[in-house]
Amino acid sequence: MGHEQDRGGAGHLLLFPFLAQGHLIPFLNLAKRLESLGQRGGSAQRRLEVTIVSTPRNVAGLRRAVPAGSRISFAELPFPQLDHGLPPDAESTDVIPLHDFPAFYFATELLRPSFEALLRELAARQGRENVCVLADIFLGWAAESARAVGVQHRVFLTSGAYASAVTFSIWLRPPAFPRPADPADEQPLHDLPDVRVRYAEFLNVIVTEDHATNPMLEYLRWMVTLNFRLSGGLVINTSEAIEPKGLHLIQKLSGLPTFAVGPLIGGRTPPDDGTAARDGDESKDACNKFLDSKPAASVLYVSFGSQNTIPAAQMAELARGLEASGRPFIWAVRPPAEFDGDEEFRAEWLPAGFEARVAAAARGVVVRGWAPQVGILAHASTGAFLSHCGWNSVLESLWHGVPVVGWPLLADQVFDSRLLEEELGVGVEVASGRVFGGLGKGWEHVRDAVDTVLGDGDKARDMRRKATELKTLVRAAVSVGPDGEVMGSSVLAMERLLDSAFD
């Protein structure tokens, strides 16, 4: 199996993330949190062991992100990707073209035989009652494997509770929209009738109207169904302070106990390619120098995440809007959606002279590729984050008290943006999907949204106040008092999770 020597113990958690950076990172942060919980005492009495299970390339990357002296262990599972016509190095969605995503998702079940062999080995050596699988929602078959071997299973949601509840409800029982439908038409969800979704949001989640014969949707529906039927609970990277409504909805939909253990925040490192260390250091130095030169809460950070991007035409409009706003910014750019993400970034994808003008005026920094996101959000000069609203980025914004200009692109990101704006009051949506929102504007819409968040108006002040309050609340959720007795809600949820898994 390639797993490290087990050290023995009464409780062994196997963490099994889906093969994507947006899932690997929170699983790693969860492992670190579990390890620190064991070191603190209390749960340490069960001599908790934590093993992260993944493919060889992913394990290699995760090992580099684990601090020296950590007792987190790893188990490697062979991944015969070629059986599904995938490239030999395709062990993460990071290197998979969008059109190959269905094949990649289907191929993950090739991990099942070696995963079950690992489970049986651990159960035989340590006792079935001392092993618990904590697997990704997109690896629903792992719940079947755990049931077959006779060990406990919990499912880990790396997305937020509200967005998960809405998305899963749409997958399981899609609402019936009239045809033709206007993008703004709304329908209630069958299982969550208090929640209404617009047709445009529905299409973002369902991908095609012909959902009855969509094999990818059928796969996702089956993964969710398996977890809801067979798992012993939902572990969610959120907190009661962030998502009381979302936690209620996901518990109602799933019928399972929920454990809100977040936010799970950790550092991000550059991707491991030949230039990562050099480019990462250069980006970090350029960003820090720029931020140090700007007033507090004045800089807009722009990033669509490690895998997402927008079309070239919208990238040009975004650039014009940033320049027209007159606000300082840092923009982590990737090739437009029409191009291969591995291509060298071309100046022609931005307005003529844009980079030179903003650099000469000390108005902006354009980072090509990786940017030190956590460090940027933590800096006092960062005042807002124009984001795709991926859940990891949302949590990092809330952790650092930074309001969000939302530009969700797909799936659960749409509902994360809604949460930020409508429930938490710390977001303003500038666009949804890969086209600008319903005002029919381009760069003017960007300019106005940036001014709304970074300006001196009542809305900007209110958003900053609420972001500061949330920063305090989310940090309190994961805090432990000096005596070890006073614990935040997410720490208590982690204790309940371990009690349910092993007691």
Automatic annotation (TrEMBL):
Residues 15-152 form the Glycosyltransferase N-terminal domain. GO terms for molecular function: glycosyltransferase activity. Pfam families: Glyco_transf_N (PF26168), UDPGT (PF00201). InterPro entries: Glyco_transf_N, UDP_glucos_trans, UDP_glycos_trans_CS. The keyword Transferase applies. Belongs to the UDP-glycosyltransferase family. This is Glycosyltransferase. It comes from Urochloa decumbens. The lineage of its organism: Eukaryota, Viridiplantae, Streptophyta, Embryophyta, Tracheophyta.
